Amino acid sequence: MADIYLVRHGQASFGSANYDQLSDLGFEQARLLGQWFANCRKPFRRVVTGGMARHRQTADTCMAELPKALRAEMDWHTDADLAEFDHHEVLLRHCPESGDPAAFKRMLEERGRESSPGRVFEQLFRGAMQRWMSGWHDDDYTETWPAFRHRCVAALERLSAQAAEGARGPVIVFTSGGTIATLMQQVLGLQDFQVVDLNLTLANCSVTKLMTRPGQVSISYLNNYAHLEWLGEAGAVTYR
Fold first, then answer.
1. Alpha helices of the chain — where are they, by DSSP H?
2. Is the torsion defined by CA of 8, 13, 19, 21 positive or negative?
3. Other residues' Cβ atoms within 10 Å of the Cβ of residue 41
4. How far is C-alpha 43 from the chain's CA centre?
5. How far is CA 8 from the centre of its chain?
6. What is the mean pLDDT of residues 153-164?
7. Contact at 8 Å (CB) between 169 and 1?
8. What order do you get walking across the sheet with 171-175 strand by strand?
9. Predicted TM-score (pTM) above 0.85
10. Is the distance from CB of 4 to CB of 209 less than 8 angstroms?
11. What is the pLDDT of residues 68-118, one digit of tens each?
């Protein structure tokens, strides 16, 4: 049996022109996770990132907290199939106002006066995901939902095969919420709407642990962020 740890990246720069950049809190979340792993003395042998800046920033910051002896044993790899879907495009096709970050932020604040901007964003995001997943508008997207799901599953199959062959596991993967939720759909047999629900509840820098055997993948735990609650200050747990 071999283990695969799936880490959602730290908080990114939501509402800015460049989302693919950790916020100050995102870097701190990655450091807290690294301290947790260092305390557990996790001997990761393989580090995989999804190819986005926020993935690598999270990985670099997290792994830097581990003892030098443990870091020396690590092999680093990039797998573009573990990159996030283009959430900007998915949201834009459903809500054209999202094309201007500043205007979109104002719109969320105005609509959220009676509830909250976060609740308004969640409703818009659900609608955008449903439109993308429906298959009725595939020509509107650079990558369709089936294509995204296929590449995520293919990446998981490669990781599982490597782990089953004893390829210097355990493996830690730094990726995004949509990717992790889609992998959980494959492992647990979830419906599409459940992928959306799960994606919205995955905390930044949370950890999901998979156990692999030849031809089988199972879940040890999902969306664990106890390290943020234990080591972090108030507000250390975020979801976007």
1. 24-40, 53-63, 68-71, 87-94, 101-111, 117-134, 145-164, 177-188, 192-201, 226-231
2. negative
3. 10
4. 22
5. 3
6. 87
7. no
8. 75-78, 46-49, 171-175, 2-8, 207-213, 216-224
9. yes
10. yes
11. 888 888 899 999 999 999 999 999 999 988 888 777 778 877 776 767 777
Residues 6+ apart with CB under 8 A from 165: none
User: 3 pairs with which residues across the strands?
Assistant: 211
Hey, what amino acid is at 79?
A: D
Query: Given this structure, which CATH class describes domain 2-83+144-231?
Result: alpha beta
Tell me the two tokens of residue 59: 């990985």
| Tokens matching residue 223 | 């969306």
How do the domains of the chain map onto residue ranges?
2-83+144-231, 86-142
Residue 110 dihedral angles phi and psi, to the nearest 5°: -65, -45
- Residue 45, token pair as written in the block: 């042998």
State the pairing for strand pair 216-224/207-213.
Answer: antiparallel
